[in-house]
Design a protein that fits this description.
The chain starts with 6 loop residues before the first strand and ends in a 5-residue tail after the last helix. It has helices at residues 16-28, 46-55, 73-86, 102-105, 113-127, 168-177, 191-205, 227-244, 246-251, 256-265, 272-279, 284-290, 296-308, 322-329, and strands at residues 7-10, 33-36, 60-63, 66-67, 91-96, 133-136, 141-145, 161-165, 180-183, 216-223, 292-294, 313-319. The relative contact order is 0.12. With 334 residues, the chain is α/β, with parallel strands linked by helices. The chain has two domains: 7-226 and 293-329, Luciferase-like domain (TIM Barrel); 227-292, no CATH class. Strand 8, helix 6 (168-177) and strand 9 form a beta-alpha-beta unit. The chain contains 14 helices and twelve strands.
Length: 334
């Protein structure tokens, strides 16, 4: 039997030197990929990706995800060409539509996000063929541009493009034009069923099947042999999201009563003290609804739920001891 597919997700919770060691450790333990986040203005994805690529030989390295607004399309293509030079055929470009108010605060107007994403994926893919590209869209303009490789590999680059999608319109677009989709975290497994329908609709437009689209999924993973410790680790993050993104939480099945109760304790942005005060309101079953948290057996069972609902590869975001999590999942989730 083939080994279950597993991937590691890194944000900014660990020192970069530790992340580099974790990428090497995940590779040694049979993980197929390491994905680096780029969401808040705290840690860019490209520098860590280069570091992971430089110290590994087999594991794939993905951006999970960069946005399609802040890098000129020529620079974006040159960046992934460079990463592919560092780790040929091991780089994945994960790209998403970003979010407000952050985008607006740095002067980006996220208009027509579906068209902007379609143009980005189309133009980027053309540039990575190393052919001369002319492309005139609403968001990207290329006039006889090619990646100007003078020294080194001149063949087309194999860099799959995955769209980070949460809403169903972007999901459908991913099914139509992307090599894969990066499914979001802090959603209940049943969310995946709606996502699969949207991906399939998009795939049909391009004469493809759902099976042609890779579907890795971010998952919060708080695992420990001390079950309470694991659940409390995830409870803090769940409490933050209950205050920050109640619509997402309600869509995942959290009751309005609990959301109202949380909001009586939390203002936003919430202080650490407020989050600590509100944590006791969040019961274990709510923590486990949208995260893989608890004992090793519970966590593996939860990951299996997402797999059963369409995810092809868990991308595990470790809360707690990341090496323990890698060890527990090194034999898969079966």
């Amino acid at each position: 039997m083939a080994q279950d597919r597993m991937a590691l997700y890194l944000q900014d919770a660990h020192e970069l030197s530790q992340c580099i060691e974790l990428a090497k450790y995940a590779e040694a333990k049979g993980f197929e990929a390491v994905w680096q986040a780029e969401s808040r203005l705290v840690r860019d994805a490209i520098v860590p990706m280069a570091a992971y690529a430089a110290v590994t030989t087999r594991i794939k390295v993905g951006s999970g995800v960069i946005n399609n607004w802040t890098r000129n399309i020529g620079l974006l293509a040159a960046t992934f060409l460079t990463l592919d030079d560092l780790a040929p055929n091991r780089i994945i470009c994960g790209i998403g539509a970003w979010w407000d108010p952050l985008a607006k605060k740095v002067g980006i107007e996220r208009r027509k996000p579906l068209l902007a994403m379609r143009e980005t994926v189309t133009a980027l893919r053309q540039l990575l063929t190393l052919q001369e590209v002319t492309f005139h869209g609403e968001f990207h303009h290329l006039d006889g541009v090619r990646l100007d490789v003078v020294h080194g590999r001149k063949e087309p680059r194999n860099v799959p493009i995955y769209i980070g999608a949460t809403g169903m319109q972007m999901m459908e677009l991913a099914g139509e034009i992307a090599d894969g989709v990066v499914l979001n975290y802090l959603v209940a497994p049943k969310y995946n069923l709606e996502a699969m329908d949207a991906l399939e609709r998009g795939a049909k437009k391009a004469g493809r099947r759902l099976e042609d689209i890779d579907r890795p999924q971010l998952m919060i993973c708080s695992v420990d042999y001390d079950r309470k410790k694991a659940l409390d680790g995830a409870r803090k993050m769940m409490t933050q999201y209950l205050g920050q993104q109640p619509h997402l939480m309600k869509a995942s099945g959290v009751s309005q009563e609990l959301l109202d109760e949380i909001h009586q304790v939390l203002t936003w942005p919430a202080t650490d003290e407020e989050i600590e005060a509100a944590m006791h309101l969040v019961p274990d079953d709510v923590v486990q609804m949208c995260t893989a948290s608890g004992s090793p057996e519970e966590v593996k069972a939860k990951v299996r739920e997402y797999i059963d609902n369409g995810c092809t590869c868990p991308i595990l975001y470790p809360l707690g001891d990341p090496k323990l999590m890698i060890d527990i999942f090194s034999e898969g989730y079966s």
